[in-house]
Structure formats: C-alpha cells, structure tokens
C-alpha cells in the first residue's frame, strides 16, 4: 500500500506527532510556520505521512525564492535543526521524494534537509558543521569545579569588572538587539529584523528566554535560549568588541549555564560551529563536545552540492564592505538581505 502524503494536516495532529517523536526538535513544531512565513514571506510546506488516521512522519519545509541563491527548499532555514521525523525506514525516502517533486514544480534547484544523524543514506550529504553539546553537572558547584582554571578566572574577571547578568523575556528584546545588531555588523553579516526574534519568542512561549550582560547600565553581551525537553540551546549570542577586555561573553555563558542547571536542564547546546574556527574553540573551552551534523540533499537542477554560507569566498569583498557600514544603515539594509540567506 502506497504511503499517503499530504499537506492538509491540522496543527493538533502535527504537534501531537512531534511531541511524541524522540528525535523532534523545537523547530519541528507548528508554531514555527509563523516565523518562517510571515516574517520573511517564504512559503511553508508542511508534509505529513498518514497511515489511515495516524501520522507516521512529518517534514516541515520552507520554499525559498532568494535573490542571492535562486529557488530552493530547506528544512529548516535560519536554525540549526530540521528535516524528517519518521516512524519507519520507508517514510523518510517517501517524504524526500515528495519534497523534491514539490520543489521541482516550484522551479527549485535543490532540497536541503538539516539532520543530526543520517536519515537518507543514499542522498548526497555535507558534513561541514557540528553542534556543540555539554552534558551538565547536577549542581552549579559541580559545574564550576569542572571548568578549567582559565575559564573560571575569566568569569571572575568579568564579575570584578562590575558586569551583571539578567534573564527575561520580550522586555529585554531592545537590549538584546542593540548588542546583536552591532556584533553582526562587525562580523560583516546582515542582521535579522527585531520582528524575527519577537516571532521566535512568541513561537516558543515560556521556553524561550533572553539573557543580557550589562556594564554601567548598558548591554554589552546578550543571547537567546530555547528549551526543549531537558535540553537548552543558544542559537544566537553576541558581545560587543569594545567590551572584550571585560570578558562579557564568559559571564553571559556562565550565567546561562547556572540558569539551566537551576531549572533542571541536563544538556546545554552551544549551537552549530565549523570545526577549527574561533566559535568552535570558544565552545570547546566549556568542555562541550562536537556532534557531527548531516545536511542531506535532493539535487534537482544542479550537479554540485550548494554552498550558501555568507562566509564562502565569493562573499569576501561584500563582508569587508559591510563591516564599514554605520550600524543604523546596516540595520535598515540587513533585514532586506538576510531573508535571502537560509
């Protein structure tokens, strides 16, 4: 009997399946349609496999029409995880085949699925990224003891420099964005609009939090965390370069770790990195361990795997020019550009 694949699934059926699936991430939840679609204007295509009334697999997909990279489909853009959730070995290939069919009908060049473990052994794959995971101690004191002396000294220096940390919700969005937007400009990367982060906070509700480190009443480091089951991820974090000597990033991450341990979290997810780069080494010093990610593809009109990273060589000149923009200008232009980069 052929699998029944549909885009006509209710929010209730979808979220019930995601909630029960052991490999699900927060990004698989239905609420994220309201992040990918309304904020950037991309088309969400949420595929579900049914066995009668029972859902046996899902694939949240977003159809991109990018001025930079053309037409393609991704699961999921802007975030670290996505892809297929399936109950049996025949479900994942069927979902990918349907995703490729729909992508082809939209004139897309490829489909990209961001998996942790491989779901499609016969599909082309990139393994250029890892996620960095830290198994947490049962107490803050034990976690502190597990840190290297260098890390503890940097945290102490931040505290002695008069830095303070706080956590909250949407009331901290302005402070978070003030740091995040400056840091993105300094990196030469277009910035997401504030409404993107407001939509993330709405989608995650009480499971999302903002964290801000202040110096003399001004934010100098900030992050957004998302909790799912017993794991907390930090997909976005930034610190101001001019405050680097105060070690605000060290206090920010120690503050987050303490919060997560206090709330019973068991794993801290530092987010994805490229092995060997600076962010990889920053996360490694906290004793986080790399877990390989597998981005699997259906190639439709292209022969080679895509490289859509803004850090790829062809964007080098644009990145250097972007770093020279006034922050106000970068903040106006950035949201018009970043929606084209998955």
Short recap of the structure:
The protein is of the alpha+beta class.
Task: Write a structural description.
With 342 residues, this protein is an alpha+beta fold. It has 2 domains: 4-127 and 294-308, Aminopeptidase (3-Layer(aba) Sandwich); 131-292, Aminopeptidase. 35% of the residues lie in helices and 28% in strands. The protein has helices at 11-20, 33-40, 91-105, 140-146, 149-160, 173-187, 194-204, 248-262, 278-284, 316-322, 327-338, and strands at 4-6, 43-51, 54-66, 70-75, 85-86, 110-115, 125-126, 130-135, 164-168, 208-215, 218-228, 231-239, 267-273, 289-292, 294-299. A hairpin with a 2-residue loop joins strand 10 (208-215) and strand 11. The two termini are 36 Å apart.
Outline type: globular
The top-level CATH class of the largest domain is Alpha Beta
Strand share of the residues? 25-35%
Give the % helix: 25-40%
Strands, count: 15
Q: Could you say how many structural domains there are in total?
A: 2
Low-pLDDT parts are none
CATH superfamily of the largest domain: Gcn5-related N-acetyltransferase (GNAT)
CATH topology of the largest domain: Aminopeptidase
Please provide the ordered H/E string of secondary-structure elements.
Answer: EHHEEEEHEEEHHEHHEEEHEHEEHH
Query: Main β-sheet, in a few words?
Result: 8 strands, mixed
Our count of helices gives: 11
Mean pLDDT: 94
Estimated structural class: alpha+beta
Radius of gyration from the alpha-carbon trace, in angstroms: 20 Å
Multimeric organization: single chain
The name of the CATH architecture of the largest domain is 3-Layer(aba) Sandwich
Taking the alpha carbons of the first and last residues, their distance comes to 36 Å
């Amino acid at each position: 009997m052929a699998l029944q694949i549909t885009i006509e699934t209710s929010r209730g059926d979808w979220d019930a399946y995601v909630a029960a699936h052991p490999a699900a991430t927060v990004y698989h939840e239905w609420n994220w349609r309201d992040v990918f679609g309304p904020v950037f204007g991309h088309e969400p295509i949420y595929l579900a496999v049914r066995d009668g009334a029972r859902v046996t697999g899902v694939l949240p997909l977003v159809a991109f029409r990018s001025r930079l990279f053309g037409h393609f489909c991704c699961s999921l853009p802007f975030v670290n995880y996505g892809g297929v959730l399936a109950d049996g070995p025949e479900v994942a290939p069927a979902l990918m085949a349907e995703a490729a069919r729909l992508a082809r009908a939209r004139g897309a060049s490829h489909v990209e699925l961001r998996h942790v473990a491989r779901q499609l052994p016969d599909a082309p794959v990139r393994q250029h990224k890892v996620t960095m995971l830290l198994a947490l101690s049962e107490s803050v004191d034990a976690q502190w003891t597990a840190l290297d002396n260098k890390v503890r000294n940097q945290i102490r220096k931040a505290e002695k420099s008069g830095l303070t940390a706080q956590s909250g919700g949407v009331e901290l969005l302005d402070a978070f964005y003030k740091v995040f937007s400056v840091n993105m400009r300094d990196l030469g990367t277009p910035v997401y609009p504030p409404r993107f982060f407001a939509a993330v906070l709405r989608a995650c509700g009480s499971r999302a939090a903002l964290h801000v480190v202040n110096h003399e009443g001004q934010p100098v480091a900030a992050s957004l965390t998302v909790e799912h089951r017993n794991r907390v991820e930090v997909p976005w974090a930034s610190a101001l370069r001019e405050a680097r000597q105060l070690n605000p990033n060290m206090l920010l991450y120690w503050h987050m770790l303490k919060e997560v341990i206090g709330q019973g979290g068991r794993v801290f997810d530092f987010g994805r990195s490229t092995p060997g780069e600076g962010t990889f080494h920053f996360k490694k010093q906290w004793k986080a361990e790399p877990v390989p990610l597998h981005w699997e593809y259906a190639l439709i009109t292209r022969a080679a795997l895509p490289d859509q990273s803004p850090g790829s060589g062809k964007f080098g000149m644009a990145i250097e020019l972007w770093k020279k923009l006034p922050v106000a200008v970068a903040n106006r232009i950035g949201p018009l550009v970043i929606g084209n980069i998955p």
